[in-house]
Amino acid sequence: MAAPPAAMMDGVWRERDTSPAAIEAAIRRLLGEAHAANSAYVPARVMNLVCIVDKQWSGEIANRLRRVGRLHPSRTVVVEVEPRRTTLDAVATVAGPAETKPGDFAVLRETVIVTCGPQHLAHVDTIVDPLVVTDLSTMVWAPHGHDEAVDALRHLSQIVLLDSVADPDVDEALQRASDLSDELYVVDLAWLRSTPWRERIAATFDPAPVRGDLKLLSGLQIRHHPDSAAAALLVVGWLGSRLGWELSPLVTRAGNGATRSGTAHGKRQDVKVKLVADPSMSVPGLAGVTLESASGRTLRFDRGEGGLRAHYRRTVRGGADVEREWTVLGASRGESGILGEGIRQALLRDPTYGPALEAALVLAG
Amino acid sequence: MSEAPENPLAKGLERLPVHPTVLVIFGATGDLAKRKLLPALYNLAHEGALPERFHLIGVSRREKAHEDFAAEAAEAIRSFSRREPDEKVLEALLAEAKYVPGTFDDESVYRGLKEQLDAFDEAAGQPLNRAFYLSTAPEFFPVIVEALGNEELTKAAGEREVRVIIEKPFGTTLAEAQDLNQRVLSVLDESQVFRIDHYLGKETVQNMLAFRFANSMFEPLFNRNFIDNVQITASEDIGIGTRAGYYDHAGALRDLVQNHMLQLLTLLCMEPPVDFSADEVRSEKVKVLHSIRPPHRDATFRARYGPGTAAGEDVPGYLQEDGVPADSHTETYAALRLHVENWRWAGVPFYLRTGKRLARKVTEIAVTFKPVPHLAFGSEGSVGVKPNQLIFTMQPNEGVSMSLGAKIPGTRMRIRPVNMEFLYGTAFMSQSPEAYERLIMDAMRGDATLFTRNDEVEAQWRIIDPVVRRWEDEAETLVEYPSGSQGPPEANELLLGDDEWRAI
Fold it and tell me: Which residues does the UniProt record annotate as the domain Glucose-6-phosphate dehydrogenase assembly protein OpcA C-terminal (chain A) (predicted)?
């Protein structure tokens, strides 16, 4: 059973009008003090997460990060951008569980919050560089835009975390992800939201006798949150890139229940593609997927309680259609779970996102 | 016959597709099922890792309705799951769970089971894979397998695969293990049999292979030229609790050494396999086992715990535990010195020890390197240079550490050992899944890499069986060590030269 949240020990240092060198020295001192007070305390050494946020939304981002639970990076550097600020203020915290068991160890996590002004962003790398742990991977996340800061940090990062559905302009969001992926490994939350759907589609066609049906796919409909067209495009892009479809831009019809539709050309079969916005969907991501094959089979997955609800129908010539329904088990991860997954994925490499993204760009036109 | 092309959609997915499966647990109301198997299934369901279509059937002696079984399973999951269950997933997992009551030698149980399995196939419109998990007392393993065979439930048909997962112990002697293998393999093909050793499902155990074969800096040193000795320790700070019935028949040697500890030894000593397919890995492990002769009498030692103090409390000795016969000769501590007689390891002693009611719970492998050939530093004023040690810790703090000699700050050249540590908990964000989660998935997927093959089990018994028989024949009074201690000092006698046991 999950334990209730444990009491925390934390060492805090703060200074106004400070410098990166002073902050770095303070973290080292806090770590040393924690270890001297209790040798069970050891620093986590997983990766650095650098967040560039608007100061007014900094608390909300802190809450989101707090909710990711165990999937926490070891050192988090939050750069808060405050209009009209000219100096740097900083707070450094080293925190760990208040109680440790004899012979056990307790992991310390380090958080640095640096408040700066917009003029600092073009060279924010000179502030962040001394604050990240050398030899650990560094991931940058800028949920409120601040592209210039991300660009300034490219040379000291290996990973960028983004959410393609956060930008109202789908084409621009996908283009930005593509640009970044030239230099960095992109972890896209929109892509991660589609993981269970991609897994289920892959599982459907995994048994050897039905694998051939992939070539017979004739229809693909994806229902999505009105703001999550990028996620739907990525799934179509994934299927297209994996199955070698020839893709062209989809035609967009705006409005309530907006759609994008078109035809992808498979090696043996054209595939009618339709993306439909579902205004009843309350969270970002996909609401459902329907796959049709030229052999008369239709498989539909929809969000449901306790997992995805699957519905299968096979048309039988001269007889009654065969229909089946079942639940594909799985818990909803929620938005905090998605962010946690994004942080975890930073240290893995998914070879299928890049081709899916390029294909999605073609579909987006 | 041409093979089906690879599934192009599986690339890049962390959770590879698994064929729709019905899992049948024999002994579904037992302790292992409640504490480990059902919670493992829930966690797999929670993560969306179970097959797209999955059904559970419980088989056990007591009469009960399907709904009662589902309710009891839900309660077990709520009590023992590593995460708080999502009630909707839990409900969906158990909504169609079925229960077949009866004794394992009763033919009607298997007819009832067949009806249920056929009904699931019918509802799915396809033949579902079948995985039978034997979580029962070992005497029922052959009974169940033969009964499944008689009812033709073990036959793969078309796309359907049938697999049988067998819990330990796989025999209590070599003869029993051979007999069990013979009976099981008269019904099943070896590729259908998955013998569980749950140690192999632990991340740190698997990490030994990564550590050895993914790092060029250590593997060149892993041989008799650089390694002085190896100690494998599996100590527990608790006594036998309520398990006297099982433990007094098993003893420390059968409980841990014959299976888990020999598995650790094979992973440490095996040659790099051609690839990490099940048979390549297991063939290399079997070669190691074939290189080990049963230890001589002076290379074995046994003892049992006497009264003592644990965590500040007085605790009884083994003979005073509930359910232990007064004339018991069962060991709660076993130590062996083994030699792997091959080109790589000739002359390196491997010390294995396990015990209950020792000072601390720890499972580790300590590899001690040979000392440097010439010491230019004096040791006056310090503990001096010690041989390097590489420690793989399985519990409690999973990780790898290495001791090195380092200069003590100051004006003189004084050396003392320091540690470099890699702790899983500090370097990875993911919580390790329970060993059973990994093993159940692997079995459903048909990947036998982390399961013990028939020749492996028998090779393990060939090493241990002579010691078991000798200890049974010799009704000597066992040495007692105080509970909460480092173990019996007499165990030092099997150490060679200046070797010392590492502190527990």
Answer: 186-356
How far is residue A245's CA from residue B107's CA, in Å, rounded to a whole number?
Answer: 54
pLDDT at position A301 over 90 = yes
* From B19, B46, B249, B260, active-site residue: B260
Q: With CB atoms and an 8 Å threshold, state whether B84 touches A348.
A: no
- Listed as ranges, residues in chain B with pLDDT below 50 are 1-2
Say how many CB pairs under 8 Å bridge A and B.
Answer: 144
Q: Is B64 left (phi over 0), alpha (psi -120 to 50) or beta?
A: beta
The amino acid at A196: P
Residue A12's closest CA among A97, A95, A98, A100? Answer: A95
CA geometry: angle at B450 spanning B444 and B456, to 5°?
A: 120
Q: Is the pLDDT of residue A124 over 90?
A: yes
Contact of A171 with chain B, judged by CB distance below 8 Å, is answered with no
Residue B96 has, within 13 A of its CA and on its CB side, a CA count of: 16
Q: Taking CB atoms and an 8 Å limit, are B12 and A200 in contact across chains?
A: no
The minimum CA-CA distance between A153 and chain B, rounded to whole Å, is 24
* Residue B213 DSSP SS3: helix
d(CA B494, nearest CA chain A) in Å: 29
Does B33 belong to an annotated binding site? yes
Q: In 3D, which of A326, A363, A329 has the Cα closest to residue A220?
A: A363
pLDDT at A257 over 80: no
The angle at the Cα of A194, spanning B424 to A247, to the nearest 5 degrees, equals 130
Strands B193-195 and B98-101: unpaired
> d(Cα A73, Cα B428) in Å, to the nearest integer?
9
Residues in B closer than 8 angstroms to A241, CB to CB, are: none
Question: Do B46 and A200 lie within an 8 Å CB cutoff?
Answer: no
- Three-class DSSP category at A2: coil
pLDDT at A5 over 70: no
Amino acid at position B310, single letter: A
Which positions in chain B touch A332 (Cβ < 8 Å)?
Answer: 86
Which sign, positive or negative, has the C-alpha torsion A99, A100, A101, A106? positive
The reported pLDDT for the residue numbered A71 is 64
CA A103 – CA B360 distance, rounded (Å): 9
Average pLDDT over residues A298-317: 91
Mean pLDDT confidence for A209-238: 94
Q: How far apart are CA B138 and CA B180, in angstroms?
A: 10
Question: What is the pTM for the complete model shown?
Answer: 0.89
Q: Could you tell me where the DSSP H helices lie in B151-234? A: 174-185, 203-213
- DSSP-assigned letter for residue A298: E
pLDDT for res B1:
43
> Binding site annotation covers B361?
yes
pLDDT single digits (tens) B225-252: 999 999 999 999 999 988 888 899 899 9
| Least confident window among A33-47, A68-82, A134-148 | A68-82
CA distance B86 to chain A (A): 7
Which of chain B's residues have a Cβ under 8 Å away from the Cβ of A242? 8-9, 11
Cβ <8 Å between A327 and B125: no
B260 tagged catalytic: yes
**Amino acid identity at B32:** L
Q: CB A71 to CB B429 under 8 A?
A: yes
Q: Which helix (H) or strand (E) holds B309?
A: strand B308-310
Say whether B275 counts as a known binding-site residue. no
Lookup: tokens for A267? 């090696």
For testing contact with chain A, the best of B1, B2, B3, B9 (most A CBs within 10 A): B9
Burial readout B237-249 (b: 16 or more C-beta within 10 A, e: otherwise): bebbeeebeebbe
Question: In the structure encoding, which two tokens stand for residue B39, read together?
Answer: 């919670």
Q: What's the whole-number mean pLDDT along residues A256-260? A: 80
How far apart CA A322 and CA A290 sit, in angstroms, is 16
